[in-house]
Amino acid sequence: MLIIDSKDCENIDKALKKYKKKFEKSRTLLQLRDRQAFTKPSVRHRTKVLKAIYKQQLAAGKFD
Which regions form coiled coils (predicted)? Predict the structure, then answer.
C-alpha cells in the first residue's frame, strides 16, 4: 500500500503526481503482469541468456 503525505495547502495535482511516481518506482504493475501467466524457469533462463547475448552484440557494434 502506498502512502502519500500531503499538506493541506498542497495542490491535488502535485499529490497525484507524487503518487504516480511512487507507484512507478515500486514496480507494482510489472509484478502484476509477471504473475498473470506462469513462465517455466527454463524459459525464463533462456530469455535472460538471449537478452545478455543481444546486449553484448549491441555493445560490440554488430547492430547499427
Answer: none
pTM higher than the cut 0.70: no
49-57 long-range contacts, Cβ below 8 Å, gap at least 24? none
From the CA atom positions of the chain, what is the Rg in Å? 19
DSSP letter string over 25-63?
HHTHHHHHHHHHS---HHHHHHHHHHHHHHHHHHHHT--
Place of cell 501467466: 37
**3-58 tens-digit pLDDT:** 888 777 778 888 889 889 998 999 888 899 989 999 999 999 999 999 999 999 99
